[in-house]
Amino acid sequence: MSTILESVDVSKHFGGVKAVNHVDMKIEKGDIFGIIGPNGAGKTTFFNVCNGAIPATEGKVYFNGELVTGMSLSQIASRGMARTFQNIKLFNYMTVLENVKTGFHMHTRTNMFDAVFTTKRFKRDEEYIVEEGKKIIERVGLTKFTNVRAGNLAYGIQRRVEIARALATQPEILLLDEPAAGMNPNETQELLEFVIALNRDGYTVVVIEHDMKFVMNLCRNILVLNFGTKISEGSAEYVKNDPKVHEAYFGKGATL
Amino acid sequence: MKLTNKIKASHARDYRSVLFVLAAAALIVAPIIIDATVHKSSYVIDIMVRILFYVIFASSLNVINGYSGQFNIGHAGFMLIGSYTGALLSTKLGMGGVWYWVAIPISGIFTAIAGFLVSLPTLKLRGIYLAIVTLGFSEIIRLIAMNWTAVTNGPMGVKNIPKIWLFGLRKTSSPMVIYYIVLVFVVLCLYSTYKIINSRVGRAWMSIREDSTASQSLGINVNRYKAFNFMLGAFWAGVGGALMAIYYRFISADMFVLDEGFNVLAMVILGGQGTLVGPVLGAVIVNLITEFFRFADEYRLVLYGLLIILTMWLRPQGLAGATNTVLAGQAITQDSSKKTAVDDGADA
Hints:
The complex is a heterodimer. By secondary structure, chain A is α/β, with parallel strands linked by helices. Chain A is about 40% helix and about 25% strand. Chain A has 2 domains: about 1-80 and about 170-255, P-loop containing nucleotide triphosphate hydrolases (Rossmann fold, 3-Layer(aba) Sandwich), CATH 3.40.50; about 90-170, no CATH class. In chain A, the strands form 2 sheets. In chain A, strands 6-7-8-3-9-10 form a 6-stranded mixed β-sheet, sandwiched between helices. Chain A has a 4-stranded antiparallel β-sheet with strand order 2-1-4-5, covered by helices on one side. In chain A, strand 9 (about 220-225) and strand 10 (about 230-235) form a beta hairpin. Chain A starts with a strand and ends in a 6-residue tail after the last helix. Chain B has 2 domains: about 1-35; about 40-265, no CATH class. Chain B is built from 14 helices and 2 strands, in the order ααααααββαααααααα. Chain B has a two-stranded antiparallel sheet with strand order 1-2. In chain B, strand 1 (about 165) and strand 2 (about 170) form a beta hairpin. The chains are: A alpha/beta, B mainly alpha. At the A-B interface, helix 2, helix 3, helix 4, helix 5 and helix 6 of A face helix 7, helix 8, helix 9, helix 10 and helix 14 of B.
């Protein structure tokens, strides 16, 4: 299998704070990859650097072999990297369908003239996004919420809408920032199955998560960060038994 | 349940299209009836023409403020550019008469270019910082028009703007004919805005308004779409400005002071940002208030102020405002959203 996302020696400093410090990472195509670490380990910052939300201080990020450091969030998104946010960023006042329709932006070409003169392209695009949008909504199991305003939905469902919107961009890799945060065990279990199903459909998935059980059950490979530095990387089994990881989570001398 | 909903929906559609046809008929027939019945008809028609101008201005400002959520308070600058372009093309380059039909779009395009230039420094700014830039732009443009005597004729303004030819038939500038010409442009403006808002471009604008980080993560080039947005708003402001020059046949820089921009802004806020009818309603209401309270002279401004405060307090989304935007504020949406959730719940 080939590498889809690779970071080489990536650092991000906020003034004197080294939020991310020389992190190397390699994600294979088709993997479910987890990034874990205690609070403030720099997981989200690292994530944001990878997808262009914030610029890296040092180092390089390669996406499908292409150097993407220095590109903006939207440029990287247009290359097939979609993401969700830790604090859900839905278009709260739009319906679920409208949210998903917006996600099709990159895959439609309608411009202002098309819209005003109702050209073929406009009609084709509108038909396409409604049809495909409904398919995606069905795929994530939200058909009955199609016309409900996103802001009114329960937290767990909003997460799904966000994923649906990300899927509308037809990504190769899906970055989920704490998808299980604030969910009850039932919702978490559903999410777990859902992410595995997505992976089976061919999406490479990267997950940042606090919930250890969730990560260990879901991810094949895991990267562990602490104080911005990589302390362990490998299969779920390997990471679980790594003394360095235990030390980061429980302190020195803890025996399990 | 579903069936009754469908019936209800189709009734609503019928009802709306009937209303639409009635309104269109009323707008077409009104000046003829007024001309025949009212004593001082030209005065009334003059007010109607003015309302139509402000419908264009308010709608174009709404494209910027209402749909992409940028805060432009210097709309008078765009109006001035369009107005002066139209006036100067006709007086200095002889593009009066029939040529106006070329000069009007040119004024719009020229203003759109200005809109693009204004959008450049504002791409990185939002909220109040953007507002300050647009405010500065508006004043700078006015001062240029005021002082660049060689081109704009300075404080004397542009006089003797030629009349417009309607399809080469006759030279005219009677309020009645201008009314119909402006009405056509109002329809074009509202129709094109409606179409664009309900397309990929409009969705991109609204996503920027709702959450620009999220919209970037969907691959939307936020800067480009903000620029497009400014250009479309400026285009219609320019067209409206050119029409205004044709109607008044005299323009000067002090017709486009900051207050004028605030006036248009007040219409948009009162009527409701982010909807098609909002600015139309706002333009009608504010202009009627201006006329009815003419006796109160400058104290009318106090009334505007009160109205805006009341709107923001009681109905932050404006009279016809959309509930489906961030602009509406929290209180309003929560309550109307409950209704939607219940409706859909029953359906599902």
